[in-house]
Amino acid sequence: QRGSDLRAGEPLLGAGAPIGPGAIGLLASQGIGELDVHRRPRVALLSTGDELRDLSEPARPGSIVNSNAYMLAALVRSVGAEPLVLPRAGDDLDALTTRVRAGLEADLLVTTGGVSVGEYDLVREAMERAGVEMGFWKIAIKPGKPLAFGAAGATPVVGLPGNPVSAFVTFHVFVAPGLRRMAGDPAPHLAPRPVRLGDPFRHRPGRTQLVRARLEDGEDGPVACLHGRQGSGDLASIAWADALVVLPGERERFEPGDSVAALPLRAARAATPAFA
To answer: The CATH number of 42-54+63-182 is which of 3.40.50.10330, 3.30.300.180, 3.40.980.10, 2.40.50.140?
Structure first.
């Protein structure tokens, strides 16, 4: 029936609307084959450290697989951005500076490693030589304390911890919202949900802790079931979790049934290629 779906002059999509399968079908039904969208942000990913090796390289004493490169590239794609994985840089100032300069050609440069105590001097010097002005280093969260941020002109630079769990957590909380904003998403931040703890937890006060959890349906609403291993080296927890539970740094003990905030990691809407 004429007018039953859309009225004449009625907007099809608003600014910032995600262009997913439904939107594409709607536009095609109205004879619209082209429209202006936000460009996907290009994200340069730079891993640092002599100990790193690719999956295709044979193992050598003291080496570890550069899992961050693969994980972060997947995370970048999941928020609708385009990853540019740079050749990894060892602990060499000239090589590191060259890689940083190349990364600054992107919309955002994300480095991993070289921001912990005892490692930061080399990365900081390379950043300074490449024209990056660092704004801060270290934040009061766990995991992810050694997080750095700066900029070279209009290009932001984020230094993530080399630990994969810390890199995973800090990407979700700090990097992903920025990329969504750059892509035109009008609601880029993780939306906290009130939940109740399903397990006890104790931590040392002083830093807000982001605990890997899985949200389950409870009688009185969602319940956050905590992963049994919360160490910074427990990679199985990031594959298992679908939320980060925010535990304030002022408290030491948390008990089952306590009301807390959870940041869902898997949004209700899927990652989309563009925003109107």
So the answer is: 3.40.980.10
Each residue's pLDDT, cut to its tens digit, for the chain (276 residues) gives 666 778 888 889 988 888 889 999 999 999 999 999 999 999 999 999 888 999 889 999 989 899 999 999 999 999 989 999 999 888 889 999 999 999 999 999 999 988 776 666 788 889 999 999 999 989 999 999 999 999 999 999 999 999 999 999 999 999 999 999 999 988 899 889 999 999 999 999 999 999 999 999 998 899 999 998 888 778 899 999 999 999 999 999 999 999 999 999 964 344 455 666
Same fold, 42-54+63-182 and 193-264: no
For the domain made up of 193-264, the CATH class stated in words is mainly beta
Domain-wise residue ranges, the chain: 42-54+63-182, 193-264
Least Cα distance to 168 among 244, 106, 116, 107 occurs for 244
pTM for this predicted structure: 0.89
